[in-house]
Prior knowledge:
The protein is an alpha/beta fold. The protein has one domain (2-127, 193-261): 3-Layer(aba) Sandwich (Rossmann fold), CATH 3.40.50.1820. It is built from twelve helices and eight strands. The chain has helices at residues 41-49, 73-86, 99-110, 131-139, 141-152, 156-159, 161-178, 180-192, 196-200, 224-232, 249-252, 254-261; strands at residues 2-6, 9-16, 27-30, 54-57, 92-97, 115-121, 207-212, 237-242. An eight-stranded mixed sheet has the order 1-2-4-3-5-6-7-8, sandwiched between helices. It is globular. Keywords: Hydrolase. It holds the Pfam family Abhydrolase_6. InterPro entries: AB_hydrolase_1, AB_hydrolase_fold, Carboxylesterase_BioH, Epox_hydrolase-like. It comes from Thauera propionica.
Amino acid sequence: xxxxxxxxxxxxxxxxxxxxxxxxxxxxxxxxxxxxxxxxxxxxxxxxxxxxxxxxxxxxxxxxxxxxxxxxxxxxxxxxxxxxxxxxxxxxxxxxxxxxxxxxxxxxxxxxxxxxxxxxxxxxxxxxxxxxxxxxxxxxxxxxxxxxxxxxxxxxxxxxxxxxxxxxxxxxxxxxxxxxxxxxxxxxxxxxxxxxxxxxxxxxxxxxxxxxxxxxxxxxxxxxxxxxxxxxxxxxxxxxxxxxxxxxxxxxxxxxxxxxxxxxx
Length: 265
């Protein structure tokens, strides 16, 4: 881990450097609500093994990054672009998961000439959050964590009882480490952002829309309006559905996700 200061706050940043680098722009991976950089560990290592330089930050208020969580998607997107400036990256490839996919989409809409490739994992626009979950995040955080775990993964009869239990335990620990305040802020940011299709209309790079076949949070068929908006804007938008995976594709199907990202995007 290395730290840098951005907008007056320390940022925890993790870099994965390849042994032999390609000439493609580096990847910047953006985690989702109530998470931190660690959800990307397997993915970042796989991309680096394929020759990509990879940067994985903790968003403000998450993991090792200081400050309060940023309150809305557009503000987080501006922060991501400012991070690219601080790293001296003129061109980047962005990949985000869930809330992070909204951030990546917003950033690509803000700086279309700067984004060489875009990958949105577990994305839908809009991304409404149930009032019950929003309330639980504020008032009954353990219930909120349990609900998110319930819907994040493919069923046990697909994953296996033991593997699903391990995935849930790791995800619970990760959410507890961030804390209820962070989760509540992140979920509210997802729920209130309504500019996804407008941002997509400004995107100018090839885009991957990566879905889990068994995702109950952002179902694969929900991505079609986003795909249509990107295609209408003149982008190549490719939908990839990962078999047997739920919403937490980085943990459930890391090899398939790396293969998708290392493809023709």
